[in-house]
């Protein structure tokens, strides 16, 4: 097996891989030697992301695929396609999920919550269930779920996201127990505030409204959220955490949630 975080010779599949954390995770896996299939619903976006990932390198190491995690047939089909790509599957990263508008739970529509569960929690289950028959039993088989800080902290107006993320934590624990006899590990990372494209755009808009720079907005949010390291994460730092859990450096780690949030300690407010 590969050692030292090296993923040479391994095949990985990342959902929601065309942007944000999914793209960063795919990039981290690729940099460590894995061949990476990235999935998204938008064909143009996922092909463009594959082009960015392979700029200056071998395009054969990245496979862009179109998949809808809310559709079991789509998920089954794409997992079979990814496995056939190199005749192997070692790493699955469940990342696809919706961006919810902040709101208190008594104002959130049932359909919004149901859609979030269907896309993220049940979507992760669909992908994992479809992947299990293909995942390596030699010790390289690994599933990494992307959770979120709202699973652990009470953040105002984030209840809908929180209950979905809490479900992913439970999914990770149960799936780890059930996959262990097949020598497949299941873990999760729980990112905090990260400088993804979406958040950079959002903090720029907030800065214009508040008469501040985006950096000042982010610094204020870091302070308000009680982030001990007093800064936001770079996407590459989240990618590195996911790659660690996928590698042999984490060969004795399963059923765990690694919080990659700079020590966020937001009190109830």
From TrEMBL:
Keywords: Oxidoreductase. It holds the Pfam family adh_short_C2. GO terms for molecular function: oxidoreductase activity. The keyword Oxidoreductase applies. InterPro entries: NAD(P)-bd_dom_sf (IPR036291), SDR (IPR050259), SDR_fam (IPR002347). Belongs to the short-chain dehydrogenases/reductases (SDR) family. This is SDR family oxidoreductase. It comes from Streptomyces chromofuscus. The lineage of its organism: Bacteria, Bacillati, Actinomycetota, Actinomycetes, Kitasatosporales.
């Amino acid at each position: 097996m590969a050692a030292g975080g090296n993923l040479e010779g391994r095949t990985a599949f990342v959902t929601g891989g065309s942007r944000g954390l999914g793209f960063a995770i795919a990039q981290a896996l690729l940099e460590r030697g894995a061949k990476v299939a990235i999935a998204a619903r938008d064909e143009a976006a996922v092909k463009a992301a594959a082009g960015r990932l392979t700029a200056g390198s071998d395009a054969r190491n990245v496979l862009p695929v179109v998949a809808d995690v809310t559709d079991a047939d789509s998920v089954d089909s794409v997992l079979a396609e990814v496995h056939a790509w190199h005749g192997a599957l070692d790493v699955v990263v469940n990342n696809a999920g919706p961006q919810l508008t902040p709101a208190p739970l008594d104002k959130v529509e049932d359909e919004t919550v149901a859609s979030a569960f269907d896309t993220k929690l049940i979507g992760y289950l669909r992908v994992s269930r479809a992947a299990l028959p293909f995942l390596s039993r030699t010790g390289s088989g690994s599933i990494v779920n992307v959770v979120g800080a709202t699973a652990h902290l009470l953040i105002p107006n984030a209840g809908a996201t929180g209950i979905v993320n809490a479900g992913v934590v439970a999914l990770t624990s149960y799936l780890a127990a059930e996959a262990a006899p097949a020598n497949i590990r299941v873990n999760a990372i729980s990112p905090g505030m990260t400088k993804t494209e979406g958040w950079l755009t959002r903090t720029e808009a907030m800065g214009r409204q508040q008469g501040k720079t985006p950096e000042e907005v982010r610094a204020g949010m870091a302070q308000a959220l009680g982030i001990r390291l007093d800064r936001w994460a770079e996407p590459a730092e989240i990618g590195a955490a996911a790659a660690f859990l996928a590698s042999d450096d984490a060969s004795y780690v399963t059923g765990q949630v690694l919080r990659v949030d700079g020590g966020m300690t937001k009190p109830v407010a």
